[in-house]
């Protein structure tokens, strides 16, 4: 239990990373800047659409839909704040302010802004500057919240917070910061210049649209690999004993979450069960893990019930292609080559659970030293909640960032087509 009189005297601040799928929040002591508690909740706006563009379309239909989306988001904030206070024995009226970071779409929907120009090319935010907005929270009077600045397009304040937390602009060498999700933010620091873009990767990395896909939870396969004593080609008879599946909760595998899906694709490439173009095939002497067609669809079976279809693989390719083409364009615009990168920083829940070798093997990220950074968006929001200087640094980041819009580029489709293929066999052999 916390000392209520002390907390009331110093006040509490609420730091929020308002994500497309998940809302993450932290309570901080305004006096010391110490984080007292963290919690998360599902974003209820998901009922209006799993992806950003669907929600924007809903909000753009009429003022009532926009109002409903705003109220759903703000209600979730109130409930999350109440939960944090209740679970930690804190009186809600200790909260005297907060900081909110979000991607551009979630920022606009949470504030109830007109999204007409954001929902169509060239995808321009209605407001990008930092804002002080009063919101009703936990049954209390209006509380001032600092909405951190957006960079442009779909690169929002969550990217600003991530850059701040990762110290990207403080590095002596070139580095990539990538937050992979339904909308993937890509930030490149190269030769004193910050370049950013966003890639519409869709829900596949979160298990969406995959026949046996699921979000992180009990029964989700988070990783897959050979047993240490596994050797030789995988075939139908030995697949159950040859593979080790990492399953949340330790029970039966129900489906793949994003990290498990990437591990599975990497394994199938390594075993030449799928080729670099993503096609399920009988290459070499390999016998795929479950070959029969069901309803005319080719599939690979890892267990009796855990399968990947050819369509699943194609959907992962599309998501992977969107991210990698964004990386390639950003680096080309900055004059950077893969060998220039000192490291690739993976942030967010997905990035932090990702097997870096698998990500490189399928061609999702360039080959480089990989740093798993956790939720940099929330970490940056916490920094801004604890310090005005951090808020000012975030505003500087937003001002100097060079936003590269992928939509409408004449070379985008060419980059995207090239990025659809998985890493070739030579690359895979070099990583063994």
Question: Mind sketching the topology for me?
Answer:
Blueprint: H1 4-10, E1 12-18, E2 22-29, E3 35-42, H2 52-61, H3 63-87, E4 95-102, H4 104-111, E5 131-135, E6 143-147, H5 157-166, E7 174-179, E8 184-190, E9 193-199, E10 220-226, H6 239-242, E11 243-247, E12 255-256, H7 258-270, E13 299-301, E14 307-309, H8 310-334, E15 341-347, H9 348-353, H10 356-361, E16 370-374, H11 376-386, H12 388-400, E17 402-403, H13 412-420, H14 425-430
Parallel strand pairs: 1-4, 4-6, 7-15, 9-17, 10-12, 15-16
Antiparallel strand pairs: 1-2, 2-3, 5-6, 7-8, 8-9, 10-11, 13-14
Helix pairs in contact: 2-3, 5-11, 5-12, 8-13, 11-12
How is this structure best described in words?
- It is a single chain.
- By secondary structure, this protein is α/β, with parallel strands linked by helices.
- It folds into two domains: 4-147, Domain of unknown function (DUF4445) (Nucleotidyltransferase, domain 5, 2-Layer Sandwich); 167-432, no CATH class.
- It is built from 14 helices and 17 strands.
- It has helices at 4-10, 52-61, 63-87, 104-111, 157-166, 239-242, 258-270, 310-334, 348-353, 356-361, 376-386, 388-400, 412-420, 425-430, and strands at 12-18, 22-29, 35-42, 95-102, 131-135, 143-147, 174-179, 184-190, 193-199, 220-226, 243-247, 255-256, 299-301, 307-309, 341-347, 370-374, 402-403.
- The strands form four sheets. The chain has a six-stranded mixed β-sheet with strand order 3-2-1-4-6-5, with helices on both faces. The chain has a six-stranded mixed β-sheet with strand order 16-15-7-8-9-17, sandwiched between helices.
